[in-house]
From TrEMBL:
<dbReference type="GO" id="GO:0008081">
    <property type="term" value="F:phosphoric diester hydrolase activity"/>
</dbReference>
<dbReference type="InterPro" id="IPR017946">
    <property type="entry name" value="PLC-like_Pdiesterase_TIM-brl"/>
</dbReference>
<dbReference type="InterPro" id="IPR000909">
    <property type="entry name" value="PLipase_C_PInositol-sp_X_dom"/>
</dbReference>
<protein>
    <recommendedName>
        <fullName>Phosphatidylinositol-specific phospholipase C X domain-containing protein</fullName>
    </recommendedName>
</protein>
<dbReference type="InterPro" id="IPR051057">
    <property type="entry name" value="PI-PLC_domain"/>
</dbReference>
<dbReference type="GO" id="GO:0006629">
    <property type="term" value="P:lipid metabolic process"/>
</dbReference>
<feature type="domain" description="Phosphatidylinositol-specific phospholipase C X">
    <location>
        <begin position="51"/>
        <end position="193"/>
    </location>
</feature>
<dbReference type="Pfam" id="PF00388">
    <property type="entry name" value="PI-PLC-X"/>
</dbReference>
Length: 318
């Protein structure tokens, strides 16, 4: 018993030290970067506001949400705090400026996070359709994957094509070099990642797993995650030559050997350092690699940071 208490106390000291490390880095380096002072006048239509004829897809910094469909997961005050990564509905995430959604499903077409199950994926699809009906030039990356430990939903590729067919941008390497205006009226890049079923075919309406990559580091230590994100990002090719989307997740996640297991206080250790991360990308020479940037509990400032850098790229200032 004493050994376990000692270990947890040591872990809490490590967390505290890493929090101070990030705080000190921000105090010494600030968080200014090209476009940092830009604020989109309308987050719901921020791509339209940047001029779809000028915005190439490979210049966009996509604000994304991690475990996007968890706003109503679990039982409030009981299991929800251990699995909830977003407090907003899919529609309100999109309205706030999110442009990449991370949706996990299980065999009965319900959204899930681990063993906890929430609403039907139909809720996600309907929220996306509502948002698209209210906007004209916003492009969404929709990642749908079968959650670890679950089976693929039967005929799920056909379901996605039936539900979203009119909006789907077909899998094509040339898409990365095109402007938003050249893709319209198509609006969704749908990346379907089954666990066992066949991957989407080249040229089809769905994109295969290789088109959205990341290096997931499962830790609750904020400086460790921050530095790992920078290292993995620096190993990537620049966005202008890349033929896939690469995601960096500004998140840390609860660990079983730490006494704090609720998502919000744990991910809060890194949540406020998104602008610092972008600043460090410039300082360390890898800003031209940043493309998809995701977070838990997305807020306006996170969106503004991504849109600001996108604006700077479009204007040739970054």
């Amino acid at each position: 018993m004493g050994g376990q208490v000692s270990k947890q106390w040591e872990r809490r000291n490590v967390v505290s030290t890493e929090k101070k490390t990030l705080c000190s880095l921000r105090e010494s380096c600030g968080h200014e970067f090209p476009g940092c002072d830009y604020r989109p006048p309308d987050r719901k239509n921020w791509m339209a506001g940047l001029n779809p004829e000028k915005v190439h897809l490979n210049k966009i910094v996509w604000p994304g949400t991690h475990d996007s469909g968890t706003n109503k997961i679990g039982i409030p005050c009981i299991t929800r705090p251990f699995a909830q990564c977003q407090s907003l509905s899919i529609y309100h995430q999109l309205e706030r400026g999110t442009r990449l959604l991370d949706i996990r499903v299980e065999e009965d077409r319900h959204v899930c996070h681990g063993i906890l199950i929430t609403y039907s994926v139909d809720v996600v699809i309907n929220d996306i359709k509502r948002f698209l009906s209210e906007t004209q030039s916003e492009i969404i990356i929709l990642e749908i994957r079968t959650e670890f430990g679950h089976e693929d939903p039967p005929d799920f590729d056909s379901y996605l094509e039936d539900q979203l067919g009119e909006f789907l941008i077909h899998q094509d390497d040339q898409v990365f070099e095109k402007t938003i205006a050249e893709l319209l009226p198509k609006r969704i890049i749908c990346v379907w990642k089954p666990r066992k079923s066949p991957q989407p075919k080249a040229g089809g309406p769905l994109w295969s797993a290789g088109y959205l990559k990341d290096n997931w580091v499962d830790t609750d230590l904020p400086s460790t995650k921050f530095e790992s994100n920078l290292k993995h990002l620096s190993d990537q090719s620049p966005v202008m030559s890349r033929k896939f989307f690469y995601r960096v997740e500004n998140t840390v996640t609860p660990q079983a050997d730490n006494p704090v297991l609720c998502v919000k206080p744990v991910t809060g250790r890194i949540h406020g350092y998104a602008r610092l991360f972008i600043t460090q990308c410039f300082s360390r020479g890898c800003a031209d690699r940043l493309q998809v940037f995701s977070t838990d509990f997305i807020d306006e400032d996170f969106v503004d940071a991504c849109v600001g850098l996108t604006h700077a790229r479009v204007e040739g200032k970054a």
